[in-house]
Each structure stands twice: as structure tokens, then as C-alpha cells.
């Protein structure tokens, strides 16, 4: 799905998705690429962490570890 479709489907503003992608928080590392259902899952997880007090800086270290564990 496109950035706009992901934003509409997830309820997260496109500019936030761009910021999260550029920060390396989503598996898709290119905002011009198509996002997958996996990206939407990770976006939901990122939002959950942020809503519960984590910072983007905290997640820059945490999310790659989560992705590694999920791939195993």
C-alpha cells in the first residue's frame, strides 16, 4: 500500500509515518516504497510504545531488536 493508504488505514498521519520511517522504526526504510501489512503491524506497535511514554530515541534501539526477534 502507498503511504497515503497506510495513513488512511491506520489513522496515523502521513508526516508521522514519514518521521518513523526515517528514524528506522518500521521495516520499510523507504517512504516511497510500498508498505506491507507487516509495516502496518509495526506502525501499530510503535504507536503503542509512544502512547505509553517511550520516546522515538528509545525506539531507535528497541525496534531493530524486536524485528530481529520476529524474524527468528
From TrEMBL:
One of its GO terms (biological process) is regulation of DNA-templated transcription. One of its GO terms (molecular function) is DNA binding. Residues 1-64 form the HTH merR-type domain. Pfam families: MerR_1. Signal peptide: none annotated. InterPro entries: DNA-bd_dom_put_sf, MerR-type_HTH_dom. Coiled coil: none annotated. It comes from the Bacteria. This is HTH merR-type domain-containing protein.
Amino acid at each position: 500500500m502507498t503511504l497515503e493508504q497506510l495513513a488512511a488505514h491506520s489513522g496515523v498521519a502521513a508526516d508521522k509515518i514519514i518521521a518513523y520511517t526515517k528514524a528506522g522504526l518500521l521495516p520499510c526504510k523507504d517512504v516511497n516504497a510500498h508498505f506491507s501489512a507487516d509495516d502496518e503491524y509495526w506502525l501499530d506497535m510503535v504507536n503503542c510504545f509512544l502512547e505509553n511514554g517511550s520516546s522515538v530515541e528509545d525506539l531507535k534501539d528497541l525496534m531493530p531488536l524486536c524485528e530481529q526477534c520476529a524474524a527468528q
